[in-house]
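Page header: ASSEMBLY MODEL / two components / 486 residues total.
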Amino acid sequence: MNKIYVTGLGPGAEDQMTIRARKVLEHCPVIIGYTVYIDLIRDLFPGKVFLSTPMRREADRCRMAFEEAEKGQDVAIVCSGDAGIYGMAGLICEIGKEYPQTEIEIVPGLTAASAGAALLGAPLMHDFAVISLSDLLTPWETIETRLRAAAAADFVICLYNPSSKKRADYLNRACRIILEYRDGANVCGIAKNIGREGESVRILSLDQLKDTGTDMFSTVFIGNSRTVELNGRMVTPRGYKDV
Amino acid sequence: MNKIYVTGLGPGAEDQMTIRARKVLEHCPVIIGYTVYIDLIRDLFPGKVFLSTPMRREADRCRMAFEEAEKGQDVAIVCSGDAGIYGMAGLICEIGKEYPQTEIEIVPGLTAASAGAALLGAPLMHDFAVISLSDLLTPWETIETRLRAAAAADFVICLYNPSSKKRADYLNRACRIILEYRDGANVCGIAKNIGREGESVRILSLDQLKDTGTDMFSTVFIGNSRTVELNGRMVTPRGYKDV
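Prediction written out in full:
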């Protein structure tokens, strides 16, 4: 019985892959993924067959994985970050119904919330909500409802896909919604190109964030009411010191 | 200048550590942590000085790390999961103000949300909220407000610390709150002892979850309105197939 390993690579740097993920990629003769992710790992795993499909052809990429597995070989399908967080794991499970003879294992990876938080300091010490601002697959009304709920209940908020060329003003729209519930001084952070060339972080207020441009390679953190800037780090105290 | 590495070990198994975390532990002569976590890694890193303090003495453990670093050596302070998610990263940043001559690096790890989701299938394909049910450091009213907000806005909900001996009925209380907004058939999952001996998962309805006992080593997932059980897996479709 052949197996598909849905593998999260982590944010980009080889070192942020789990040991398990590396072993899986060493094991599988075929590695499938979106070109940008394949390029991150091509040189690390010589001798592999690397296959790809263009962006947005996620279902095709999944079927390609099952078809390669049916040839009698184990296959890794890779995503950046965690395959289980806005990644390919769900679609593989769904399409897997059509290929009951192929086993599936999800190999988790570091998601941008974890890796970005580590660069900024410690913003996720308390309850948090992860929301994607991409309305490609979700109506904006649903996104807005979630932004309002998370802002009102004082969650730390982590935004994936904060903007893109087509959605240049989405982060601004999200900030304006959150500002209905939060102070303009609310501490926020941006982590950009995590684990890759050009990695950078910035700490700023919610008022400043509203007017800041980001891109697809940025992850945005909006602190809760207790989040502070401390020696250049974004920190949400959990309360240990008070105990 | 000496350095403290606040290092997330991942859920427990050696393989789920990142390559970076392993390199850091190989590098540091002193490794500090709560006894349970030290026991997970003691045999993997022979020749190290392992130091510990009892549970709940988190601030003491942090100061111990800075004092060891002041002796002129690099120190790793370890947590299970991700040091940046309900971990030690925040407290180290706070106490670090007293030790400006010591550098701090946060080394992220796989948190239980990622690792548990991978075992269950793909519950976190869409926006999600992470909430700890421990009221040791958070008033129950705040926890309840967040449960209501997340339930009403149709987030997938991931519960950390769902119960303990002293808080045996907390998961039941949380489920009853969520049931004010959700159907009893809402698909849920429990991941127990992730990456450790006795690892297991269970998929069940919100009605069943309400009357199910868990413990400190369990992570609970409550799907959103679109989450389904698919071939024994908990899957939240993201919508790619509809595109």
